[in-house]
Specification:
The protein is an alpha+beta fold. 20% of the residues lie in helices and 21% in strands.
Length: 156
């Protein structure tokens, strides 16, 4: 059993620039994580355990700094470890339809999800530092009603 705040794993690899992402082999490119503006951590092997942590819109794990993955809540033996990619993805290189099944599921996952004020509150302290800097800028420069507007969702 893992308790909240307990270290689960650490991403490792080599640092590559955004301009080099497309040149990586598919099995490596699909397991990169953005660690800074225009910088990514690319696995050196396609079988690093943290690379296989899947997305969920209601995750049980999050980031502590750029590369450490920690439990957000108690995780029971046999339970899949998941993170919300909004905590670390800030570019459109990995967009997909979500099928996590959570009542909080956003349906479509994109590199802009970190912009959602509801996620700022839910994942406070668990965004990658480069995204937290972006969030801090948005909080300072957005009108007070902008956060409210971004929470209004009309479903047909």
């Amino acid at each position: 059993m893992l308790e909240p705040g307990e270290l689960i794993g650490v991403w490792s690899g080599r640092i590559v620039g955004a301009d080099a992402i497309e040149d990586l082999p598919d099995e490596i490119r699909h397991h990169t994580v953005q660690i800074e503006e225009a910088l990514y951590l690319a696995s050196v092997a396609p079988d690093e355990p943290p690379d296989y942590i899947n997305h969920s819109c209601e995750p049980n794990a999050g980031l502590d700094g750029q590369i450490a993955i920690v439990a957000l809540r108690r995780i029971l033996p046999g339970e899949e470890v998941t993170i919300d990619y909004a905590m670390c993805d800030g570019s459109p290189y990995d967009e997909f339809d979500c099928a996590c099944g959570s009542t909080l599921c956003r349906g479509k996952i994109s590199g802009d999800d970190w912009r959602m004020p509801a996620l700022w509150e839910r994942y406070a302290g668990h965004f990658s530092p480069y995204l937290q800097r972006r969030i801090d800028v948005l909080k300072r420069t957005s009108p007070p009603h902008a956060a409210l507007q971004s929470k209004i969702i009309i479903r047909g």
